Amino acid sequence: MNGLDVHAAVTRAHREEWARVVAALTRRFGDLDVAEEAAAEAFATAVERWPADGVPANPGAWLTTTANRKAIDRIRRENKRDDKQKEAQILWDDPSVPPAAIEDERLRLLFTCCHPALALETRVALTLRMVGGLTVPEIARAFLVQEATMGQRITRAKAKIKAARIPYRVPAAEDLPARVSGVLAVLFLVFNEGYLATSPDTDPVRQDLTAEAIRLTRLVRGLLPEDGEVAGLLALMLLTEARRTARVSANGELVPLDEQNRGAWDTGLIAEGHRLVRERLAGGVAPGRYQILAAINAVHTSARDIRDTDWSQVVALYDQLVSLDPSPIIALNRAIAVAEIDGPEVALAAIDRLDDKLAGYHAYHATRADLLRRLGRGRESRAAYDKAIELAGNTAEAAYLTRRRDQLG
């Protein structure tokens, strides 16, 4: 096996095994710092040894065993082995705690990272790091904050989990409803990072993250089958994932919705997503944020051609969403739909009012660039494209924006 093959094997193992290794070590040692650092050391050892020794038949088992040894070595070096083992037993192996409804180590890790004692943005960041395996720079880009700030946020979160003795387990049934909203917010962010990766050093679409977010959302739905927002988030993910293979061209460019080959969409995922949306609508309960977003995606995936899209329904759904979530990004997306009904000039006026809130967001400038192009304002459009390209971390999106800018002449 050559060096390229080994590198690919390590990359694949990191994508598939990181969360499992971290979760297994967290359960055994009860310490996120120990788990994360030992896992990282195990992968570093793989980079050193696999080229000479060959890729093991079971990379996950090899990495878990190696990480366990690294963790034990660290504990011995700190001369606190007995204390840490006793603490781990008290915190994580309490026999009075009933077994979780779903025994999945990554789900345990997810609920630990999403504990309400942590701020929501901290839960998301910690989960992206511990469950998703993203690097601190990748997470910082996803949050539009400095790398040092994000590193400190994650460090403080792990320290708070240790100090507060937050248990490593799926919550009891009576505690689940209060805990699930934070988990859903995290899963949505993980999915979005896979759907449009923020790092230029990764694939533009990270199927490992979208697949993991969907898998974990299905597990949460198994815990709360009647929760409308859990079903709504799952539907939203499925309807978005259904378009994945049509979203990047053969030459590595992002393909926008209006140019995608709809015949390449996954009809099975679309059918499942539509069924979930219909079930929630039939329930007669006022929909939440994820259910409305799923309904918007259901409208898009129901149209055989972009010209068949019911834009009036899309705007009406965004109007509902704005009442629940009056964020500038929702307002931006609503304006994009308004452009299809009232024209680009009306939409541009709405978007320009968001400048002070979204000046650092690449999609804001990309949307302005497109509307200015449609209005024939080429010089302003080019400047907006330049800013969008500067801020875009996704390579496929940057390639698409560059081509659109260059077409202005």
From TrEMBL:
Residues 20-80 form the RNA polymerase sigma-70 region domain. SUPFAM superfamilies: Sigma2 domain of RNA polymerase sigma factors, Sigma3 and sigma4 domains of RNA polymerase sigma factors, TPR-like. It comes from the Bacteria. Signal peptide: none annotated. GO terms for molecular function: DNA binding; sigma factor activity. One of its GO terms (biological process) is DNA-templated transcription initiation. InterPro entries: DUF6596, RNA_pol_sigma-70_dom, RNA_pol_sigma70_r2, RNA_pol_sigma70_r4_t2, RNA_pol_sigma_r2, RNA_pol_sigma_r3/r4-like, TPR-like_helical_dom_sf, WH-like_DNA-bd_sf. Keywords: Sigma factor, Transcription, Transcription regulation. Residues 110-161 form the RNA polymerase sigma factor 70 region 4 type domain. PANTHER family: BLL6612 PROTEIN, BLL6612 PROTEIN-RELATED. Belongs to the sigma-70 factor family. ECF subfamily. NCBIfam families: sigma70-ECF. This is RNA polymerase subunit sigma-24. It comes from Prauserella flavalba.
